[in-house]
Amino acid sequence: MRIIRYLEGAEVTLAAVTDDNTVHPLPFRDLMEVVREAKHRQMSTVSYIQTLISGKQGIHKEIGELNLLVPIVAPEVWASGVTYEKSRKARNYETVEKAAGQETCYDRVYNAERPELFLKSTAARTIGPNDPVYLRSDSNWQIPEPELGLVLTQEGEIVGYTIGNDMSCRDIEGENPLYLPQAKIWKHSCAIGPAIRLAETVEAPYNLQLTCRIYRNGQLVVEESANTRQLKRTYDELVSFLIRDNEAFDGTVLLTGTCIVPPNQFTLQEGDRIEIEIPEIGVLSNPVQSLIRQT
Ligand code: DO4
Ligand code: MG
Asked: Are 215 and 273 in contact (CB under 8 A)?
């Protein structure tokens, strides 16, 4: 079962999407309200939603016909770094600090007990499906980072999975790791969606296939896949560091690190379109726009 939000006129609707792809509007504004109400009734979220939609037909529209919004207005989006070997190699490639044969900060964090976690985005900077991600004006090496996102309660319980794009500037981060916030955070630099797959309904969270496709002038120019089984850490491990001595909020999203990096010579351009697919969740599709045009 998946959760979406969509706009009809001026009205925002929260809905459950059943396995036969029927869309059932729910009498709540956001997923976390449903989770809290289910807990209050000592039911699982899925069982509670089933009681809400039982005997109802759902709307006569397919998901593809809806004006989808970000599936949750996450107060904060956090991200994990260098959790896949692929990311370690890419970070080492771009850093100007590397010296032949010497360990970099990326090698050390890949092997350390404490993971790299950083604040990636806030609600105002996070966009949903079909909205444009923006390119920074001061970077010449920008890529999407396709990542699995964990949707958390304030206690750190994983209630759902979504898709995230941790847009990144490889040149800015490569120049100096202390530039990480600028390499990662700007207007529209984080996309999540198109849906949240309820955690209870995911049989094998460490066997999710991610595929990233980038189109330029309608042509496929990048296509790469990876699997969450290649993750160096467990989801609980990442969450436990996030909530340690920290205040977390219901609906926080934690991205789990990128397992896909486009070829080193690739940089995004205005007019590109990025698609990130996890079959159990859907396809997160966003056009790419230059930020200069927006200001
Ligand atoms: O170390 C910098 C960030 C890496 C990252 O975002 C990732 O591995 O996904
Ligand atoms: Mg990342």
From this structure: yes
Least confident residue range of 28-42, 96-110, 139-153: 96-110
- What's the CA gap between 113 and 111, in Å, rounded? 7
Domain that holds residue 36: 2-69
The reply to whether 45 and 91 lie within a common domain is: no
**Do 122 and 25 fall within a single domain?**
no
145 CA distance to ligand 2 centroid (A)?
5
257 CA to centre of ligand 2 in angstroms: 5
- Asked if the ipTM is above 0.95, the reply is yes
Q: What angle do CA 255, 170, 173 make, to 5 degrees?
A: 85
CA distance 87 to 166: 12
* pLDDT tens figures, 186-199: 999 999 999 999 99
User: Of 69, 90, 115, which marks where a domain is finished?
Assistant: 69
d(CA 226, CA 44): 31
Structure tokens at 169: 């500037």
Domain stop point among 30, 47, 69: 69
* pLDDT tens by residue, 243-266: 999 999 999 999 999 999 999 999
- Work out how many domains the chain is built from and give that number: 2
Domain match, 176 and 145 both: yes
* Any ligand 1 atom below 6 A from CB of 45: no
Q: Is the CB of 261 under 6 A from ligand 1?
A: no
Ligand 1 within 6 A of CB of 82: yes
CATH number for position 173: 3.90.850.10
CA-84 nearest atom, ligand 1: 8
Pocket flag, ligand 1, residue 94 (CB < 6 Å): no
